[in-house]
Structures are given as C-alpha cells and as structure tokens.
Design brief:
- With 90 residues, this protein is of the alpha+beta class.
- It has one domain.
- It is 33% helix and 20% strand.
- It contains two helices and four strands; from the N terminus they run E-E-H-E-E-H.
- The radius of gyration is 12 Å and the shape is globular.
- The protein starts with a strand and ends with a helix.
Length: 90
Amino acid sequence: MNYKITKLDKRHNGYNFYKYSISPNTFDKIKGAELLIEVRNWLWATYGPSAELGFTKRGSIWAWDTEFNNRRLYLQSDAELTMFRLKFGD
C-alpha cells in the first residue's frame, strides 16, 4: 500500500476530532504530494469540502494537514477508513 494509516491517540494532532490519519508512504517529496492530492481530491468528491486541520469545525468528516511539510489526511471514523481502503487498497 502506498499509504500509512495511523490510529490517533492523545499524542497526535486532531485526536479530539478524528480517529485516523493517512500519510503517503514515501520519502519522495513529489510522489508524496501527488499521492496526498489524489486522496484529497477523492475525499472532496466523496464527502464534500473540508479544510486544513487547524480550520475545520467539529463534526467535519475529514481534513488535511500540510503545515510544516506534513502530508496527512484525517478521517473521522471507521466508515471513512473502510471506504478509503476499498478505493485505494490495503
């Protein structure tokens, strides 16, 4: 799989709002950006608009974090993770 899935706990940003983060599993900066954009576009088309993690409202199904060279997408629940896995493999 081209993505690393992390179950969030109190050590992670977004823990209070989201259950999982997804990051491209590559050290190549360009490939990582392409993978992030691919999933972000799919999330936008599937679940509607969202925002950067620091600007999301409680109840948002998904968000992203690109601050400080982060490449993370956040998912609210198991349902969104299941859809992601169906679409992008596991």
